[in-house]
Amino acid sequence: MDTVTYPDRLAAELLALGVRPGARLIVHASMRAVRPPGRRTTWVVAGLRGALGPAGTLVVPAFTPENSDTSRDHQARTAGLTDAERARFRAAMPPFDPAATPAPAMGRLAEAVRLSPGARRSDHPQTSFAALGPDAARLTRGHRAACHLGEDSPLARLYDADAQALLLGTGFGVFSAFHLAEYRVPEPPVRRYRCVVARPGGSRWWEYEDVALDDSDFVALGARFARSASPGTVRTGRVGEAACTLVPVREAVDFAVDRLMDDRSRPSGRGSARGAPEAVGT
């Protein structure tokens, strides 16, 4: 294969999978699965943008669990530290800066998009999104700080735009749009979150209440959606070296709302405000 044409090959594979030119496309990706030549993630960005065309907008999660002391990431990184060591670690954590804070937990594609010229990023200190394309500013604008992934987040804007979601070498376990469904069930459980933010004169810790995010049943939820969806709704194939799934955001979220209302209302269901599994980035 002539590596110069690699982005064109990816674009053709994405179009064959069903990516719509001009669409808003949110991508959850594993570059280890895609295996671009020379680990050139920028070629994958070029392939995605080539499939979307000049009217399309590419979106990625740019979550920052490193910014929170209530996240699983923080708990893992501070496990085994003494109280004094944990306090020093916490005091050294920098505040979130949408223009500069990296998102290493989201992988190489998310970082490549975030760092691309013209990219826009939403302002949420834990669950921001980065976007490239003509609709990037609108999709990332107004991400309310006390709303991780609900109605005042880019996920709701993607739902309204009839966006597509591409699981590029990943599975439904990281499908962030299912979290929007958690906000849409009646009286969702809530919990406290805490992160470090920038303020005039320095940084400070900010604590707030939001929906208790729980991704522990997303794999099973996605499998049920794929089985029940009408033919052609959920499309699978290969892009690069990766097995991929292409999903319409609106249909997936609507399906999840109905199922979560049933499943999590049962006595054995998840979603307790205390002790519920967290989503990456919280």
Principal-axis shape: globular
- The tally of beta strands, per DSSP, is 9
Structural class determined from secondary elements? alpha+beta
Strand order of the largest sheet: 3-4-2-1-5-9-8
Strand fraction band?
15-25%
Layout of SSEs?
Layout: H1 6-17, E1 24-29, H2 31-34, H3 41-52, E2 57-61, H4 72-78, H5 83-91, H6 108-114, E3 120-121, E4 129-132, H7 136-140, H8 154-160, E5 164-168, H9 177-184, E6 190-199, E7 202-211, H10 218-228, E8 235-239, E9 242-248, H11 249-263
Task: Provide an overview of this structure.
With 282 residues, the protein is of the alpha+beta class. Helix content is 34%, strand content 19%. It contains eleven helices and nine strands. The strands form two sheets. A seven-stranded mixed sheet has the order 3-4-2-1-5-9-8. A hairpin with a 2-residue loop joins strand 8 (235-239) and strand 9 (242-248). The longest helix has 15 residues, at 249-263. The radius of gyration is 19 Å and the shape is globular. The model is unreliable at 271-277 (pLDDT under 50).
